[in-house]
Specification:
Helix content of chain C: over 70%
Shape of chain A: globular
Low-confidence stretches of chain A: none
Chains: A mainly alpha (about 325), B alpha/beta (about 260), C mainly alpha (about 290)
Keywords (chain B): ATP-binding, Nucleotide-binding, Transport
Oligomer: heterotrimer
Family (chain B): Belongs to the ABC transporter superfamily.
Order of helices and strands of chain A: HHHHHHEHHHHHEHHHHH
Number of strands of chain A: 2
Largest interface: A-C, 45 and 45 residues
Structural class of chain A: mainly alpha
Number of domains of chain C: 1
GO cellular component, one term (chain B): plasma membrane
Radius of gyration of chain A: 19 Å
Number of helices of chain C: 11
Strand content of chain A: under 5%
Largest sheet of chain A: 2 strands, antiparallel
Strand order of the largest sheet of chain C: 1-2
Radius of gyration of chain C: 19 Å
Distance between the termini of chain A: 27 Å
Largest sheet of chain C: 2 strands, antiparallel
Strand content of chain C: under 5%
Distance between the termini of chain C: 55 Å
Organism (chain B): Breoghania corrubedonensis
Shape of chain C: globular
Protein name (chain B): Amino acid/amide ABC transporter ATP-binding protein 1 (HAAT family)
Order of helices and strands of chain C: HHHHEEHHHHHHH
């Protein structure tokens, strides 16, 4: 099957399945969180899985998106436009920061983004006149149920948010799949496997890395805007280091080389703390442990590992 | 004017001159071979020519234009392509995708079209797929197109790299031991392939250990020893050059040389 | 004048700590090529362990070495349980492993100790010394002296002992080191142990001045990185100079610009180094082999 169509059908099917089985508003809210995380983690897949770079500051880009929809409406910019402004700002910042750093080897990006994320967090915390400081700020009301009402579908706000985030996640997943199978995507994956060979074929390695970094920053910013609007409230913790780590862990656990890994990783690590309270309590141990264990025992992550397993079982079945 | 001209090219690592002021030129439509014992600096020379290392001294010219110090991707735009001694394939991709990556410079769709999966992007991919398949056919790997590159044998990967370099539409092709890991039959096939590539007007520069192959297909041979050029000439001149036999061939190699004579 | 001196003194004090962290990075990086994101956690483990033991009534003279031993053991465990089993994993996987380990260690500290901020009395009391109109805690002298002793001891160890030469050989060429019969696994093990020990010692010395808490490691790591990059990745002398430089820059930022943004100084330095001189002050140009 055409990979784009496959991604579209699988993601949509998951969105619909969730809507069908969720018994209460609480579930829809968690579902929205899963799709918001899927969006930002899909960005990590483009960066880590396609091109092989680690960012420890993506929460900073996420927060740029979140604060764009929180701050800009106060200056007369509508929420929808603010989302695009936030995404563009995050992408531009990534390009400016990425250009000098990405000429160098991979781990410099991890270090520089670690600093960048902290800087953004610092600004959000200290500049209270603009951001409300550590206590955060209220995000002006925006409710997608009115959109759905326009086309004659009546539903609760939480459900409307679930559908909206699910649809945006679907678009995000499909775009990432398109990219992966396109000329640019092949260039990115070539850089991942051997930057020397890629450049010998005419790929401008530094530019390819900057492009992937900027795309992933835009994904994070869009996710951030959606979270701020859905919650109606935002704090500087969205820019926190642990949030960046959480995104990387989701990608690594699910399998960073595929968008399906982003979905599975987001699903597990978003739902788990809701189901098992000790996961929320021991967040650090769980996230850190998952990262190390996945890298040591199942380096490519859950989805590729299960794919291999299914492949092997199928082969065995055929040989019998 | 030769297509590729190398003048006084040199680089040192920690005080040791890995390549010391080497000059030669290579013409279009011919096979120029670089030979020499292990550690003579052949691969380092390739890395200098292809822009992977920055040279301490000297110049590289393509069609008379000074390209010294240009990064590899710029040189690729000028028509240079290469293969690698210790394989630089893309193991996570299929054999076909590996070769399709070689079409990078031909592909004209922009990032937005790629993200949105617009027809322009899909057309480019279809075009690249066609080119890549015929290149795979040409190196005899068409039946392995859909296999992950990591499953191919060493000799097959060597040929995969040639296919990947070929689809760039290069006018200068640097081949680093293309026949390594190939059996006698495959070596012969690689041999014919290189011949055919040169006949199409490509300037081929070859590093190879198989002396029979070198003598058979080279128009011109450059001999390196300890980073310096010690001889240069037609195959028959090199074969009879005392200095080459002494410095390079040694006792074991002398027998090889006689075999090549026979 | 006395104001400037005051800033210099506090800059040198924290700079000595950053130098020790940077030295730890350099040691592991040279031996294994791994950029260890858990380096800051070693410092916190040292400080938190010492604080907990001292709170239990254990005298400093016993608590301090125990805390250093605890840090060292964690370093060895990190190598044995996470780095070594990953084998020849690509660089990006190793980076992720050390990030994971750092988060994991944070979590463990939160459980074993608590989420409070800790300090204990300086080794020579908390009465400030007066010095040309500026004040200085006696603990600062311990910190500065300690970092120089560590640097000298490490230089001697690497230069004059069999095990140290193994580390040096592994650092300069791992493959060649294997060929001449050096146990590179042991050298890497030792590098992690030493690096963690140095980090923990820095934590033990620093805590009376800088305080510590379970999540202080990231910021410490970021500043250690800045110091490493400013000095030049892979250079021990660079680590020392870079550490003091970052400490001073930070103190000046806090003193003359804004104490809110003193932590941003390190990040600005990282960016400037990357923009202007990626090799750092003492770095060497490296050439990848293909």
């Amino acid at each position: 099957m055409n990979p784009t169509l496959k991604a579209l059908l699988i993601t949509l099917a998951l969105v619909v399945a969730g809507a069908l089985i969720f018994p209460s508003s609480y579930y829809f809210r968690v579902g929205s969180l899963i799709w918001i995380n899927t969006i930002s983690v899909t960005g990590i897949v483009v960066l880590l899985g396609y091109v092989g770079l680690v960012s420890l500051g993506h929460a900073g880009f996420f927060a740029i998106g979140a604060y764009a929809v929180a701050v800009l409406p106060g200056y007369g910019v509508p929420s929808g436009a603010a989302l695009f402004v936030g995404a563009a700002a995050a992408g531009l910042l990534a390009m400016v920061i990425g250009r000098p750093i990405l000429r160098l080897s991979g781990y410099y990006l991890a270090i520089a983004t670690l600093g960048l994320g902290m800087l953004i967090w610092m600004v959000l915390t200290k500049e209270s006149w603009l951001t409300g400081g550590p206590d955060g700020m209220v995000v002006a009301g925006f409710n997608p149920r009115h959109w759905f009402a326009l086309v004659g579908i009546k539903m609760k706000s939480t459900e409307a948010w679930y559908w909206l985030t699910g649809l945006v996640a679907t678009i995000g997943v499909v775009l990432a799949v398109n990219l992966g199978n396109s000329p640019w995507g092949r260039a990115l994956r070539a850089v991942h496997d051997s930057d020397v060979a890629a450049s010998s074929l005419g790929v401008d390695v530094a530019r390819a890395k900057v492009v992937a970094f900027a795309i992933s920053a835009v994904y994070a910013a869009v996710a951030g805007s959606l979270l701020a609007l859905a919650n109606g409230y935002i704090t500087p913790d969205t820019a926190g280091f642990m949030h960046s780590v959480e995104m990387v862990t989701m990608a690594v656990l699910g399998g960073a080389t595929t968008v399906y890994g982003a979905i599975v990783g987001s699903l597990i690590l978003t739902a788990l703390p809701q189901v098992l309270t000790f996961v929320a309590e021991y967040e650090h141990i769980v996230l850190g442990g998952v990262m190390v264990a996945t890298m040591v025992a199942m380096r490519r992550g859950l989805v590729p590992a299960l794919g291999d397993l299914a492949h092997r079982l199928a082969m065995r079945g055929r040989s019998k | 004017m030769n297509r590729l001209e190398i003048e006084n090219l040199g680089i040192s690592f920690g005080g040791i001159k890995a390549v010391d002021s080497v000059s030669f030129s290579a013409a279009a439509g011919e096979v120029t071979s670089i030979i020499g014992p292990n550690g003579a600096g052949k691969t380092t020379l390739f890395n200098l020519i292809s822009g992977v290392y920055a040279a301490d001294t000297g110049h590289v010219r393509i069609e008379g234009a000074d390209v010294t110090g240009e990064p590899p991707h710029r040189l690729a735009r000028r028509g240079m392509a290469r293969t690698f001694q210790n394989l630089q394939i893309f193991p996570q991709m299929t054999a076909l995708d590996n070769v399709m990556t070689g079409c990078h410079l031909r592909e004209t769709s922009n990032l937005l079209a790629d993200l949105l999966g617009l027809p322009s992007s899909l057309r480019e991919t279809a075009k690249s797929r066609g080119l890549a398949l015929s290149a795979l056919e040409r190196v005899g790997l068409a039946n392995l197109a859909a296999r992950p590159a990591s499953e191919l044998s060493y000799g097959q990967l060597k040929r995969l790299e040639i296919a990947r370099a070929l689809v760039t539409g290069c006018s200068i092709l640097l081949l680093d031991e293309p026949a390594a890991g190939c059996n006698a039959v495959e070596t012969r096939e690689v041999d014919d392939l290189i011949h055919a590539i040169a006949d199409e007007g490509v300037c081929v520069v070859l590093i190879e250990h198989d002396m029979r192959m070198v003598m058979r297909i080279s128009s011109h041979i450059v001999v390196l020893d300890q980073g310096s050029k010690i001889a240069e000439g037609k195959p028959e001149e090199i074969r009879d050059n005392e200095r080459v036999i002494a410095a390079y061939l040694g006792a074991h190699g002398a027998a090889e040389a006689r075999a090549a004579h026979a | 004048m006395s104001e400037l001196l005051q800033f210099v003194l506090s800059g040198v004090t924290v700079g000595a700590i950053y130098a020790a962290v940077a030295l730890g990075f350099t040691l592991i990086y040279n031996a294994s090529g791994v950029v260890n994101f858990a380096q800051g956690e070693f410092v916190v483990i040292g400080g938190m362990t010492a604080a907990a033991l001292i709170a239990l009534g254990v005298p400093v003279i016993i608590a301090a070495p125990l805390a250093v031993i605890a840090g060292t053991l964690v370093g060895i465990a990190l190598y044995r349980l996470a780095i070594k089993p990953a084998g020849k994993a690509p660089l990006v996987s190793l980076v992720i492993i050390t990030i994971g380990a750092s988060i994991f260690l944070r979590g463990v500290m939160q459980v074993v100790f608590d989420k409070q901020i800790h300090r204990y009395e300086g080794f020579s009391g908390d009465d400030a010394l007066r010095f040309l109109g500026a004040t200085l805690l006696p603990q600062s002298l311990w910190i500065i002296g300690g970092s120089f002793v560590v640097f000298a001891a490490l230089a001697w160890f690497i230069g004059h002992t069999h095990a140290g030469r193994g580390i040096r050989a592994t650092a300069s060429n791992r493959f060649a080191a294997v060929l001449v019969g050096i146990n590179t696994g042991r050298a890497m093990n030792l590098s992690f142990a030493l690096s963690a020990g140095i980090g923990a010692l820095a934590g033990v010395l620093a805590t009376p001045v800088t305080f510590t808490s379970y999540d202080a490691g990231v910021l410490m790591a970021l500043k250690g990185f800045s110091a490493t990059m400013l000095g030049g990745v892979g250079s021990p002398a660079g680590a020392l100079v870079g550490g003091f430089a970052i400490g001073l820059i930070e103190a000046m930022t806090a003193g003359y610009i804004s104490s809110d943004y003193k932590d941003a100084a390190a990040f600005i330095v990282i960016l400037l180094v990357l923009f202007v001189m990626p090799q750092g002050l003492f770095g060497r140009r490296t050439t990848e082999r293909v």
